[in-house]
Amino acid sequence: MTTHFRTCHICEANCGIVVETQGRTVLSIKGDPENPFSRGHICPKATAIADLESDPDRLRTPVKRVGEDWQPIGWDQAYAEIAARVATIRAAGGETAIYVGNPTAHNYSVTPQIPLLRKALGSRNNFSASSVDQVPHQLVQMWMYGHNALFPIPDIDRTHHMVIIGGNPLASNGSVWTVPDVRKRIQALQARGGTLTVIDPRRTETAAIADTHHFIRPGSDPALLVGLLLALDAAGLVAPGRLAPMLAGWDDVWAALRRFDIAACAAACGVAEAEIHRLAAVLGSGEPAVVYGRIGVSTAEFGTLNHWLINLLNIATGNLDRAGGAMFSSPAVDIVGQTGSGTRGRFHSRVSGHPELLGEYPAVAMAEEIATPGEGQVRALFTIAGNPVLSVPDGGALDSALSGLELMVSIDMYVTATSAHAHYILPPCGPLEKDHYPLFLAPIATRNFANYSPPVFDRKPGTKSDWEIVAELARAIAGMQGQPLPNIVPPRETLDRMLRNSPRGLTLADIEAHPHGLDLGAHEPRLPERLKTPDKTIACAPELLVADLTGRFAAWLAATPGDGLLLIGRRHVRNNNSWLGNSPRLAKGPPRCTLMIAPVDAAARDIADGDMVGITSTAGHVEVAAEITDSVMPGVVSLPHGFGHGRKGVRLGVARQRPGVSINDLTSRDRFDPLSGNAALVGTPVTVTRVVEAVAAE
Ligand SMILES: Nc1nc2c(c(=O)[nH]1)N[C@H]1C(S)=C(S)[C@@H](COP(=O)(O)OP(=O)(O)OC[C@H]3O[C@@H](n4cnc5c(=O)[nH]c(N)nc54)[C@H](O)[C@@H]3O)O[C@H]1N2
Ligand SMILES: Nc1nc2c(c(=O)[nH]1)N[C@H]1C(S)=C(S)[C@@H](COP(=O)(O)OP(=O)(O)OC[C@H]3O[C@@H](n4cnc5c(=O)[nH]c(N)nc54)[C@H](O)[C@@H]3O)O[C@H]1N2
Ligand code: SF4
Ligand SMILES: [Mo]
Questions:
Q1: What is the pTM of this model?
Q2: pLDDT given at position 694
Q3: Ligand 3 within 6 A of CB of 182
Q4: 465 lines ligand 3 (CB under 6 A)
Q5: Given ligand 2 and candidates 568, 662, 667, which is best to mutate, with the most ligand atoms within 8 Å of its CB?
Q6: Quick one: which ligand is closest to 102's CA?
Q7: Which residues contact 385 (CB under 8 A, 6 or more apart)?
Q8: Measured in angstroms, how far is the CA atom of residue 133 from the centroid of ligand 4?
Q9: Does domain 563-690 have CATH number 3.50.50.60?
Q10: Looking at residue 560, what is its pLDDT?
Q11: pLDDT tier at 693 (50, 70, 90 boundaries)?
């Protein structure tokens, strides 16, 4: 038996795990009590890594689609055929596109290779899961702090008051906030006399352990946030403290905010005025406090506005860059120091004219770029670790668009709702055959830490890691088009160089000397030195955000809200987006793809618990069982995302037994945040009716 210490790569928490193996068999996966950061914490998803390794549905060789069948094909032949088809498509004036999915953010070795593929393809049609996720954070950071990757991180271990808006870390284990063992960290906050407040249209697992939970009408968060800022102002609690000399445009912020009044904000968001004053008093108490917002406020029509207002709240209470507030990290690999600050609007998408953000177009534009004829139409698509048919709004439209492509290549280990459309699927080796470094996640961790995990197993002959597949594909395509061949640098070398080029000056060997992980300490104040704005100030009043507040938000506030049901999503600790559904370990338990509906809304529609209901939006219709629960706010219904494995061609034997339906057959491509292009996945207007079984004719 061999014992391996590793970091779990499945979600952002990066928990330390102990993997015991015998030969190529995984005997057990447990939490690593000696990991200084995760302290033995583990969730059920880590044990699913063993299922991933042994899953019979996992592709082990490249495959080519021939009719309804998949035929094994050699790597070199696959590359050559793909490159030749790209050349033909380009010669005929067709465009190519890439969609990069979420697991790449957990794969340090593949990300430096993706630019090689982009260059070889020479297309501006770059899409990723970032625009159904976190780009609003990045845009706000780019504008306010001068670099899109300057994430302010909640310092939960030292705060006294934390407010979580639209996040459920007890299920998600934290996001844009690497915070393993979050439940114990919340309990420690409460044990030292602090408080947790959760703002969420559902009484989530996190809300259940919070000191206070407020329902909020989906999509109305800017009203609450403006209300909180105004309440601080009214109580004389605006106190940026040592940040004051760094604040540019601070008076402009207040001039814009003071056009609004708290009563109207309270009415619009559904949180009582007295509660807004009470919460503002807590935040402005002078004790360390932090406001944090996630998916519920990022994937909203006001996503960027929400994150701006959250940053302003942390600044106004003097909690930005303060112990126990929202702090900037000092990671082993300083991405901020080694990348550009970010771009927006250098060019625009062909069909709808979306501005580029960070070199990408929004995922809401993907289907139209493929389906709309004309010059520049996308005829070839590469997906890398993504399942956009289930993840981006109006999956049905994308589903049909994909079937019209001349070439589709998916780098994925499964035949999914997305890769089922591919002409070639190029699968990576098993997860334990890869090394791991949390390149993008250590910098957003609640403490500074680093941890390098070598592969547990040697690679089986003939298999490849994602990074090799992407790099070799880039070489083949570049070669076929007569371009210079890209230089391929082994990932460990790149990582070591990035470490050495960072202020801490660590080497990979330094980190490898700590198999349980290297704790680099709590965050320290880093402003103004850390700012990347030219004058080292915080740009508090970005022009487009002030305009969004006084224009689009003001108009929304003045409009009469509809009285229909609004659909939101949810996550469960035993799922991970669309792709752990094939793990027999995780699939156990009651069905999870249900429509949560409040008792009053169910009664009004004559719906009983467990009834099949039809849900209809402007984008589509699905049918699923109802789960009546008072944990959702009246007027709100909740359906998890990541289901819908019953689509044609999907080869996920376990997941197909309970395929569920895709929430993204209901979300709409027309609902997005115009500043960032991020999809608005929450607050979709829907109608819900009981499905009346057809009575068989006598
Ligand atoms: N309605 C609604 N929609 C949502 C969300 C929501 O909250 N509500 N959340 C959004 C968010 S935050 C995200 S991040 C996106 C995710 O969107 P995507 O990234 O498009 O989707 P995933 O479900 O994460 O699918 C990942 C795919 O990668 C494959 N995969 C897993 N590991 C590897 C690997 O190591 N290598 C390779 N090559 N492939 C791998 C899996 O088999 C799977 O097919 O979904 C978004 N969609
Ligand atoms: N177990 C598990 N863990 C995961 C994932 C997973 O699928 N499963 N996915 C990973 C990924 S890719 C990500 S990005 C993270 C996401 O991490 P989180 O953001 O913590 O995850 P969610 O559970 O989507 O939390 C969003 C919350 O917002 C609430 N909400 C919906 N609409 C609104 C609104 O209008 N306003 C407010 N205030 N709240 C609203 C929802 O009810 C939900 O509780 O999780 C990661 N971790
Ligand atoms: S919380 Fe995330 S990192 Fe930790 S064990 Fe679970 S899936 Fe892995
Ligand atoms: Mo995500």
A1: 0.98
A2: 64
A3: no
A4: no
A5: 568
A6: 1
A7: 100, 101, 102, 103, 104, 107, 110, 411, 412, 466
A8: 5
A9: no
A10: 85
A11: confident
User: Which ligand is closest to the CA of 44, given by its number?
Assistant: 3
Pocket of ligand 1 (CB under 6 A): 101-103, 107, 129, 132-133, 295, 299, 385-388, 391, 411-414, 416, 428, 466, 569, 577-579, 641-642, 663-664, 667, 681
Q: How far is the CA of 42 from the centre of ligand 3 (A)?
A: 6
Would you state the pLDDT for residue 695? 60
pLDDT exceeds cutoff 90 at 7: yes
Task: Sketch the domain layout of the chain as residue ranges.
Answer: 2-54, 63-133+337-520, 149-332, 563-690
**Cα three-residue angle 613-614-620, rounded to 5 degrees:** 155
Tell me which ligand sits closest to the C-alpha of residue 576.
Answer: 2
Average pLDDT over the chain, rounded to an integer = 97
Predicted confidence (pLDDT) per residue in 276-303, tens digit: 999 999 999 999 999 999 999 999 999 9
Atom of ligand 2 nearest to the CA of 204: 44
Determine the Cα–Cα distance for residues 153 and 169; give it in Å rounded to an integer.
14
List 628's β-bridge partners, or say none: 597
- Regarding the beta carbon of 46 and ligand 2, being less than 6 Å apart is answered no
Measuring CA to CA, which residue among 235, 212, 102 is closest to residue 165? Answer: 212
Which pLDDT value is given to residue 698? 43
Phi, psi dihedrals of residue 384, rounded to the nearest 5°: -120, 110
Residue 36 has pLDDT above 70, yes or no: yes
CA dist., res. 416 & res. 414, Å (int) = 6
Measured by CA distance, the residue closest to atom 45 of ligand 1 is: 391
pLDDT at 243 over 80: yes
What length does the chain have? 698
Per-residue burial over 527-561, b if 16 or more Cβ lie within 10 Å, else e, is: bbebbbbeeebbbbbbebbbebbeebbeebbeeee
* Highest CATH level, class, for 63-133+337-520: alpha beta
Atom of ligand 3 nearest to the CA of 573: 6
pLDDT at 616: 98
Q: CA–CA separation, 339 vs 330, rounded Å?
A: 15
Q: Which fold has domain 2-54?
A: Phosphorylase Kinase; domain 1 (3.30.200)
Range 149-332 has CATH code 3.40.228.10: yes
Give yes or no for residue 696 having a pLDDT over 90. no
Residue 42 Cβ contacting ligand 3 at under 6 Å: yes
The tens digit of pLDDT for each residue in 482-533 reads 999 999 999 999 999 999 999 999 999 999 999 999 999 999 999 999 999 9
